[in-house]
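Project outcomes to date are best conveyed with an example. Our students and postdoctoral researchers have been running inverse folding experiments weekly, and each run begins with a structure described purely in tokens. The record below, which covers 421 residues, was selected by the lab manager from last quarter's runs and is presented without edits.
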């Protein structure tokens, strides 16, 4: 059974942290020339005010916050405002009947003319209703859609969020142990999922982060399989995907369990996925896009597939090297030519630090395919060389070529000709 860990942190961010969050949102309001922002997404309301109810509307202005709640939450908000997690500058407004009516009344009192709303969280019908009510009641307000305004602020985690995520991850250790114990031949997927959910609650989470996945045997090929009445059997591979929500933040874990010793083919597949996983981790660093991290893992898997499809000795040796060696270390060559461009180049560049190539000893070289905007953003290519004509000469040649022939020249032709001129 999973054991709940003693918490060493507050369960709500303190008032000072909330004030810092408010400041970031108000900077965006000023930049967008908005008088106020209507926040209706529950996690965003919680992020800005600590209100955890299932209903409520938050209006953020340049100098205050107005929380609209009905009678069910009045006492809870009052107690919150007496705690260390009190929301600074919060004005609570009662909703006697309709949230829409209360919102319009609030905006009218604030004299807010240009008001943003969360377009991703407000139904079209609700937006239309707001506009109709404002027109019929002669309230001078313009509703302006915003995209991910609060979410962009939330993307950079503060100290409370980091501490919460760390504790949420730590609690999964005991849940994982209980999950592995629950995977036994003769149990159904549903029973195993129930045991995991119980372990999540015992570990102190508010609730499971999502419906727990237990996929056994052929069902393991279905990424989001719903646990059914299939009985686990010896020899099965079982996918476990589970997680918990702690103080509003989700943390999850995916594991593959083998009932009995894995076959040689299973071990080969596992090793391939493990190496791809490690390669993806090695590719993560500031400035790298998530697509490049994904591409690094997929490139390694693709390379394995290509080598496995061949039967020649060179492919066999290369595959053996891939399976037994993860870095190049000291190499016998002075330069490495990468004759790729686009997404393929991004994926390869992301792999270079993983293979431990020293750019001071081994020069990275490219081709004209590298001659694209933004190539210098990839840290692994900062000291690399590639041959290309001056951009101005190349552009001039392409323009002249199009005037004569009505189309752009082939890339290498444009490079050669513009370099010659």
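After processing, the design step wrote out the following sequence:
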């Amino acid at each position: 059974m999973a054991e709940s860990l003693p918490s060493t942190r507050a369960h709500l961010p303190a008032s000072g942290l909330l004030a810092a969050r408010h400041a970031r949102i108000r900077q965006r309001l000023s930049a967008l020339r908005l008088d106020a922002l209507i926040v209706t997404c529950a996690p965003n309301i919680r992020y800005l005010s600590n209100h955890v109810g299932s209903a409520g509307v938050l209006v953020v202005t340049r100098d205050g916050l107005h929380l609209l709640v009905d009678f069910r939450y009045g006492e809870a908000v009052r107690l919150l405002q007496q705690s260390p997690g009190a929301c600074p500058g919060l004005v609570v407004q009662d909703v006697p009947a309709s949230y829409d009516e209360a919102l319009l009344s609030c905006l009218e009192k604030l004299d807010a003319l240009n008001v943003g709303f969360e377009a991703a969280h407000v139904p079209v019908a609700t937006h239309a209703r707001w506009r109709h009510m404002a027109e019929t009641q002669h309230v001078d307000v313009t509703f302006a859609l915003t995209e991910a305004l609060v979410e962009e602020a939330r993307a950079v985690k503060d100290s409370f969020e980091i501490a919460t995520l760390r504790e949420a991850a730590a609690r999964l250790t005991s849940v994982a142990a209980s999950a592995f114990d629950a995977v036994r031949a003769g149990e159904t997927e549903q029973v195993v999922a129930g045991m995991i959910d119980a372990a999540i609650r015992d570990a102190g989470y508010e609730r499971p982060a999502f419906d727990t996945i237990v996929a056994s045997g052929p069902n393991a090929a279905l990424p989001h399989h719903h646990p059914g009445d299939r009985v686990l059997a010896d020899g099965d591979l079982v996918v476990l995907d589970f997680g918990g929500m702690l103080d509003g933040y989700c943390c999850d874990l995916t594991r593959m369990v083998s009932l009995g010793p894995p076959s040689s083919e299973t071990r080969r597949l596992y090793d391939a996925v493990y190496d791809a996983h490690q390669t993806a981790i090695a590719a993560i660093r500031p400035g790298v896009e998530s697509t490049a991290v994904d591409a690094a893992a997929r490139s390694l898997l693709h390379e394995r597939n290509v080598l496995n499809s061949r039967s020649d000795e060179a492919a066999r040796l290369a595959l053996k090297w891939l399976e037994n060696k993860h870095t190049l270390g000291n190499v016998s060559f002075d330069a490495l030519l990468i004759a790729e461009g686009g997404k393929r180049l991004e994926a390869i560049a992301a792999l270079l630090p993983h293979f431990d190539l020293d750019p001071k000893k081994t020069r990275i070289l490219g081709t004209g395919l590298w001659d694209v905007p933004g190539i210098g953003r990839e840290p692994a290519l900062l000291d690399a060389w590639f041959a290309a004509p001056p951009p101005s000469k190349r552009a001039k040649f392409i323009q002249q070529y199009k005037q004569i022939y009505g189309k752009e020249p082939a890339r290498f032709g444009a490079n050669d000709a513009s370099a010659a001129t």
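The domain at 167-258 is CATH 3.90.230.10 (Creatine Amidinohydrolase). Residues 4-9, 325-329, 417-421 have pLDDT under 50 and may be disordered. The training component of this project remains on track.
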